[in-house]
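Technical note accompanying the year-one report. For the benefit of new consortium partners, we illustrate the data format agreed upon in the data management plan: each record pairs a sequence with a structure-token string. No post-processing was applied to the example shown here.
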Amino acid sequence: MNPSISVLVRTFNSAKALPNLLSRLDLLPGDELIVVDSGSTDNTFDIARQYKAYLIFTDGSFNYSGTLNLGFRAATQPWVLVISSHCIPLTTDLLAIFRAATANFPANVAVAYGGSPIVSRPVVVDEPVVFASRASSPAERRKVYGGNALALYRRTWWERYSFDETVPTGEDLLWFTQALAQGALIARVPGAQALNRNQGSLRHMFRKGRLESAMARKITGEPRMTLPQFGIYWGSLLKKWVMAQIPFGTLLRQGAHALGCFLSPRDEARSTSNEPGKIQS
């Protein structure tokens, strides 16, 4: 039996990107489309209404976890798909791929991640699902973890552990780490992919990289991006741009994000509030 899914999208002036996402969602009767908005001033609302989305408006400063928790409270289906408004599904059966995977999930699977690359690649739908548990090695966990750009949560696990609203970012990694510690199994569904086309400003992407890197070190204890890693990443971005695999805007935005990761302060992430609507995943 295919479970119904609540699709949760967070938006802020997402009018340019939102149609690319919503037009490719293979929603079925019984599914829900929930949009949590952080103060858009463009026609994001009109687009969301065209697709019969249930709209929720935040009150106060933007907070990653706060917007997610608002959406999860409104969701009624057993699975909640969190997907960024700037992600474009690489197939027209994204939800069907996730649904088919859940049919074979053990009962303790808390979240299943899809892939959100910056380069479009052929999707191999029958690629096997990968799992990780607290007994898995750090390398195995990294292969499975995917973040909240594209993640299917079992709602009963969110009811046990909502997202921590005291952290400025990294709420997805923190939740992932806590779920593993509580005996959850985490899945990676390789066939479920959405192309990452973040539309944030360069300042936004740089700041996002700094905060994410600092929070990741605080949560996992792993070091920040090294100079060789930064050079390799930038070289890879340049190669993809020269080969016309990514637009120039993506080159600059992803490069700014990597620079933020590299220059992230060595001390722990500061738990300061983000400006309203400025930082979104």
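Partners are asked to follow this layout when depositing records. Residues 267-281 have pLDDT under 50 and may be disordered.
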